[in-house]
Fold Regulatory protein MarR.
Amino acid sequence: MTSRIDPLTLEVVELIGTIVARYHEEYEEAAAKHSLTGAQARVLGLLSGGPTPMRRLAQQLKCEPSNVTGIVDRLESRGFAERRLDPADRRVKLAAATDAGRETAERLRGSLDFAREPLAELSDEERTVLRDLLKRMLGVTP
């Protein structure tokens, strides 16, 4: 049985792809303004939510733990991150953002205008519908 994609679905998929590409492009540019790579900025953003096990970071980034080690090493050398032992399990290493790292992550998020500006043109109701549809597509309960 051959699956055919109807024109509307194809258009929606292409629009989502365009949005994702533009977001990544702007994210990379914003990261570069802070002398960070996109991967470093992403890790810093994740760490600004609280200390995170290195293995979980690798899962969230869909990469090898050794890659996360290198990224955290570079963030640590700049004073943006630090390693800690997990008080609940001393075998687990946590990465955590420093105050400087959290401030940088906040400035980085604040400089991302691509999504914020177009979303500002939508009403609260439209943004709520969009959010709920995106969550539904991701299998997340709104």
